[in-house]
Amino acid sequence: MPKPKPYQPSVFTRPSAWVMALLAATIAYLFANVQHHRPRGTSGTASAAAMRVFFSPHGGCTRELVSLIHHAHRSIDVEAYSFTSRPIIKALIAAHRRGVKVVIILDRSNLMKENYRTHRYTRRPTPALQACYAANIPVYIDARYLIAHNKVMLIDGQTIVTGSFNFSYAAAHFNAENMLVVRHAPTIFAAYMKNFVHHQLTSQRYVPGLVLKDVFQFPHRRWKGG
Length: 226
Prior knowledge:
Layout: H1 15-37, E1 50-56, H2 61-70, E2 75-80, H3 86-97, E3 101-107, E4 112-115, E5 120-123, H4 127-134, E6 139-142, E7 152-155, E8 159-163, H5 169-173, E9 177-183, H6 186-201, E10 204-205
Parallel strand pairs: 2-3, 3-6
Antiparallel strand pairs: 1-9, 2-7, 4-5, 6-10, 7-8, 8-9
């Protein structure tokens, strides 16, 4: 009668095998989960975009903008329609004086005042325009549109400020407005910066007595809306 073979436990009954299998499954799950939840447009080591939103009236928009300007180190690029907020203007001038590169693009209403009855414009540089020019900040006038309506600040290559919020006292105290602050979104920042450069290159740098060229005119054909 043959001798019975000694008992050999199956690989599936060995404790060490179960431990290794469980460890491998855990690693596979974690890797798959990280890949699934990784934000699109960012590398595995990049910080996710951080966003904050503010509302007016009395929602802290001006306070937040002034704080961002005070903490700027390298550059502040501004596009503005209504540009009358003294705290914002003073903060930009102070930033320029401490060595931050500040560039401002304004709508033509900051240079020419429209008479809404005759639709004629009278040269009337705003106090903000004159103050920034006197501080040697490069200021450009964009007259190629009915309204240059952007309200944007691009700060230090990483912070975007945008929204409906005008850089004005009325926007801060009387209007229903919104303002979005976006950080660490390099692809979006690059798109805003490209658009800013386009507007700067197609605008005219302000000097006293500037004559505007390429001023927007409604097309001759009848406008049907839409």
